[in-house]
């Protein structure tokens, strides 16, 4: 049997509880960022007018629907 004083017992229980919450929080945040990145993988930001649009991944130089400029497949940065 482990003998502990009450303040250390409370501290240990609180530490384990908060560590569990932190681990779940970090795991959720990583999964959320992966979902958002996957959802915006085919979105492109026009280099001329900064318009965000979804492009066909097989199209080498997709044209911007706003200004007609051709853009490379560089994913738009997540805001
Ligand atoms: Zn444009």
Description:
There is one protein chain. The chain has 79 residues and is mainly alpha-helical. The chain folds into two domains: 1-39; 42-79, no CATH class. The chain is 43% helix and 8% strand. It is built from one helix and two strands, in the order αββ. The chain binds zinc ion (ZN).
Which properties best describe this structure?
mainly alpha, single chain, 43% helix, 79 residues, two-stranded antiparallel sheet, 1 helix, binds zinc ion, 2 domains
Distance between the ends:
53 Å
Q: How many helical stretches? A: 1
User: Any idea what the radius of gyration is?
Assistant: 24 Å
Query: Which structural class fits the helix and strand makeup?
Result: mainly alpha
What is the element layout, followed by pairings?
Layout: H1 6-39, E1 43-45, E2 52-54
Zinc ion binds at residues 46, 48-49, 51, 64, 66-67, 69.
Task: Give a brief rundown of this model.
With 79 residues, the protein is mainly α.
């Amino acid at each position: 049997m482990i003998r502990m004083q009450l303040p250390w017992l409370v501290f240990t229980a609180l530490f384990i509880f908060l560590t569990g919450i932190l681990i779940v929080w970090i795991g959720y945040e990583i999964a959320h960022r992966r979902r958002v990145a996957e959802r915006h993988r085919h979105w492109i930001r026009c280099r001329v007018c900064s318009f965000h649009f979804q492009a066909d991944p097989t199209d080498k130089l997709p044209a911007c629907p706003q200004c007609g400029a051709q853009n490379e497949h560089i994913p738009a940065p997540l805001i």
